[in-house]
Structure formats: C-alpha cells, structure tokens
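Handout, section B. The chain below has 65 residues.
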Amino acid sequence: MKAKEIREMSDEQLELTAVDAAETMFKLRLQSQTDRVDVPTQMRHNRRLIARIRTIQTERTKKSV
C-alpha cells in the first residue's frame, strides 16, 4: 500500500489497518520462530506499512494542534 493510498483513508480506517498489520506481524513472527515463513518479505512489508500508518497519524495530530 502506497503512502498516497494511506493518506486518503479516514482515521478509523488507518487504525483498523494498523491493528490488522500488527496482528499479521505477530503471526508471522510466531511462524518464523516455529516453522518456515512462506514469504519472508511479507514481514518487511508489514513492518513498513505499520511505520507509514504511524507516520501519517502523527502528521495528522500535529497538523490539528
């Protein structure tokens, strides 16, 4: 997901997407410790998605203050 797509989301959608990505990261971390991960780059993509979302949320809070 690109930053432009994330910026177009509402605050509620951002939070839901962040929670979903965090849950996926947790599952991938568990899977990497116990088994083989099917797609190793998926962890990197989720980590970066979470970072993008948190950055945009911070930008929005600073803009509103």
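Note. The two ends are 27 Å apart (CA to CA). Compare this with the example in section A.
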